[in-house]
Amino acid sequence: MTSTLVRQYLPRAGAVPRVDQDTRARDWAEIQERMLVPLYEAVYERLEVGSGTRLLGLGCGSGLALLMAASRGATVTGVDPGSPERVRLARERLLPEARGTRACAATRVIDGDPGDAARAPGEAAYNLVTAFEPIGCMAGDSEGLAELLAETTPLVAHGTPVVLVGWGPPERCTTSSVLRVATRLADPVRTAASWRPALRDDLEEVAQRAGLRPDGSGRVACPFGYADIDSAVRGLLSTGLFDAAIIATDRDQVEKELAEVLHTHRRRDGTVWMPNVFRYLVARTP
Question: Which InterPro entries match (predicted)?
Answer without folding.
Answer: SAM-dependent_MTases_sf
